[in-house]
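Quick one:
INPUT:
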């Protein structure tokens, strides 16, 4: 009876370059994902990357095939039959294989490979021994066949050794028998767990010489059904008998084909890479959320409120108006401004009293005297940051969402100090307007005129008191005495210009306040970006890098 060979799609051979690129992508995913990836699958993926590097660095074209099975399945007998001589010890009632035994075909040295596999028991298959297998079409040169300890051994060390070597070999040959072919440990712990490795898997039903033809056919069909349930749709079930030699030629031919193709090692490594990437894929989302502009604007609004931007802007406006009055007000009363407290100076933001450098603002000024944020302002910041975290973490797995939450919460008072430094470092003044100087000069001239008219009248009064002849003052337009025009006109026009200056100061104060508010919000936005948005963006970028790297690794 011919073996069951379910239809399997032809998979192109994996090139060495494609394997290296996929392994590099898996390494990048592990590095970028870091603590946000589950520890177990992440460690396994890192081990796969290491294995790919080590296995592809080994010189030679050997193909490592492992005979693996449960106790009593006849692995060692089958191993001896394939080798053509008694190499492995066969136990009648209990397992005797505690360490792997290797048989090597061909003259190419396999010492380095076997050292990497950590297999010390080695046998070189001579030409005469090879002929005992029946002579396949093609050569077995390059085959390294391993007889493993039973994976269901009562000895824990034996099971661990079998699993260690199974993680390194290129092709699995699962050896079972009519009594244990449905064993749950074989199917659940091994075959199903390696369902992505169907291209490097053979299943051998040994001891078929004990079955009638109908029983044999039924067992093969049932085993094929179980393999399909395990996800191995393309598995090959070969009925053999290590005792009678039935089916051995077909098995040897399959091994010869595998060795000749020299693709098993890369196929196994590629399957490992794909499986590792698939296990990690559940730890990332399908895409990354975008932070909307209005959410960033809400954050800047809340931080501006917390930083006291409105207080500073109000102080800038009042300071501007005081400066304008000091330059353009009536000269006989403007001196009063010197005794009024300056709003920016009270906040320790008067950049005319000390030079502020961008390099180290706090070393010059320390903290400002802006009132601390109110509870409402702090609550607004907390709400805005939670909104940012909620939007950025929406749809992400819990570890990534937690990383976003941590990114939007700077430790301690770092954010408060950064906002204060940003406000202190922002220029709050501008160049003095030209109209200040124009109105100031006019005010001086009018004051001089008023004083001159007053002095003129005092001189005339003094001359009259001393009975000196008094000349008539010149008239303007033949009606208004010049001293009167100078004194009264100087005062009235001075007051009028002072009033005009106050009106213009109000307009200028609003413009400067608007300009300073833009600067302060820009400075606050820079702080928001550095302390909140940039860390969140870094988490999202790591997620994107991890996701895309896993996609490249799975596409191998």
């Amino acid at each position: 009876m011919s073996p069951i060979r379910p239809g399997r799609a032809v998979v192109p051979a994996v090139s060495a370059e494609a394997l290296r690129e996929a392994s590099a992508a898996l390494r990048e995913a592990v590095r970028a994902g870091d603590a946000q990836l589950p520890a177990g699958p992440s460690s396994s993926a890192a081990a796969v990357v290491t294995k790919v590097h080590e296995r592809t660095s080994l010189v030679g074209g050997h193909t490592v095939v492992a005979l693996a099975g449960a106790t009593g399945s006849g692995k060692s007998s089958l191993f001896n039959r394939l080798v053509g001589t008694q190499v492995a010890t066969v136990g009648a009632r209990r397992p005797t294989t505690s360490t792997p035994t290797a048989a090597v075909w061909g003259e190419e040295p396999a010492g380095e490979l076997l050292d990497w596999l950590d297999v010390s028991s080695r046998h070189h298959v001579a030409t005469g021994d090879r002929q005992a297998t029946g002579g396949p079409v093609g050569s077995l040169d390059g085959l390294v066949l391993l007889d493993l300890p039973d994976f269901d051994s009562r000895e824990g060390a034996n099971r661990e050794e079998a699993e260690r070597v199974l993680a390194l070999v290129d092709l699995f040959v699962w050896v079972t028998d009519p009594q244990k072919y449905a064993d749950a440990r074989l199917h659940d712990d091994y075959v199903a767990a390696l369902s992505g490795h169907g291209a490097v898997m053979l299943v051998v039903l040994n001891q078929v010489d004990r079955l009638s033809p109908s029983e044999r056919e039924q067992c093969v069909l049932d085993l094929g059904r179980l393999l399909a349930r395990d996800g191995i749709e393309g598995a090959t079930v070969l009925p053999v008998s290590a005792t009678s030699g039935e089916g051995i030629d077909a098995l040897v031919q399959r091994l010869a084909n595998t060795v000749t193709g020299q693709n098993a090692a890369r196929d196994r490594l590629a399957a490992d890479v794909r499986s590792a990437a698939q296990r990690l894929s559940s730890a990332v989302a399908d895409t990354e959320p975008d932070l909307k502009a209005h959410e960033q604007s809400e954050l800047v609004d809340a931080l501006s409120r917390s930083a006291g931007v409105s207080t500073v802007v109000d102080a800038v406006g009042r300071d501007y108006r005081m400066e304008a009055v000091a330059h353009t007000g009536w000269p006989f009363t403007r001196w009063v401004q010197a005794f009024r407290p300056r709003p920016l100076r009270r906040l320790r933001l008067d950049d005319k009293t000390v030079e502020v450098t961008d390099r180290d603002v706090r070393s010059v000024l320390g903290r400002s005297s802006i009132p601390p944020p109110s509870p409402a302002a702090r609550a607004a910041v907390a709400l805005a940051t939670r909104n940012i975290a909620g939007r950025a973490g929406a749809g992400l797995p819990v570890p990534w969402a937690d990383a976003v939450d941590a990114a939007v919460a700077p430790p301690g008072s770092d954010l408060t100090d950064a906002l204060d430094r940003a406000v202190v470092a922002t220029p709050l003044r501008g160049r003095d307007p030209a109209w200040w100087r124009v109105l100031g000069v006019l005010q001086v001239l009018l004051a001089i005129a008023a004083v001159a008219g007053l002095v003129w009248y005092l001189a005339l009064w003094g001359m009259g008191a001393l009975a000196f002849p008094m000349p008539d003052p010149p008239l303007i337009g033949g009606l208004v005495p010049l001293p009167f025009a100078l004194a009264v006109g100087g005062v009235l026009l001075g007051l009028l210009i002072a009033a005009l200056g106050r009106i213009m100061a109000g307009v200028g104060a609003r413009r400067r306040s608007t300009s300073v508010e833009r600067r302060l919000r820009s400075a606050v936005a820079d702080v928001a970006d550095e302390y909140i948005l940039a860390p969140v963006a870094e988490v999202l970028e790591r997620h994107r890098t991890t996701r895309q790297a896993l996609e490249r690794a799975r596409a191998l």
